[in-house]
Structure formats: structure tokens, C-alpha cells
Amino acid sequence: MSEKLSEKFSRGELLNVNCPSRDLLKRITSRWSVLILLALKDDTLRFSELRRAVGGVSERMLAQSLRYLEEDGFVQRIAYDVVPPHVEYRLTPLGREVGEQVVGLADWLEENLERILSHRDKHTAAE
pLDDT tens-digit profile of 67-82? Predict the structure, then answer.
């Protein structure tokens, strides 16, 4: 982040519509990015392995999400100069840091799934 941006937006400015962190939050918390971070937390995977691990993702969405995660420094793309092409993806140190947060959220969701679904059912029944 440039000095001007860091001076203008301090920690806690995420609610400000102009804060650049909002775009990053949107990219990290997309459905596919979260699942990719979870799938790569302990493994280096090829594109096809990653697609199988992240059930339901299209090739296009997987490629786009990986590109965003790579641009932001969370995922490293490793291309081997062989035939047929061999490309692998793994988390960078920054990716492992954010991945720990995502794992914490995923663990919490799984631990509280019944309570959440119960609230959802009650809300739906009341409509």
C-alpha cells in the first residue's frame, strides 16, 4: 500500500466505502477463495486436484479465484517446464497467515452448524 493510502486509511477504516481493504475483503471472503485457502492449507495441489477438492467450482471460477489469490500474494503458482504442462499451487507465508483465520472461521461454523440451521429453520417457518 502506498504511503498516502496508509496515511489516509488506518486500521479500522474497513467500514469506509473508499477503504482499499474492502476490495481485498471481498476477494478473500468469496466462496471459492475461502474454499481454496482451506484446500491448500496443508497441501500443494495441481489445478485438477484443487478442482476436485473444491467441489462444485467451475474451471473458470477456480482459475479466476486462483489468479486473484496469486495477485494478492496468498497463493504461489509453480509452473514446471515439461510436456504436458504441470502447474501446482500452494499457499505463500501470507496465505498461510490468512488461511489460519479462515480455518478458525470454518471450525467455528462446523461447531455451531446445528444452532445456525435451527435459527434459519425458525426464521423460515415464521415467514
Answer: 999 999 999 999 999 9
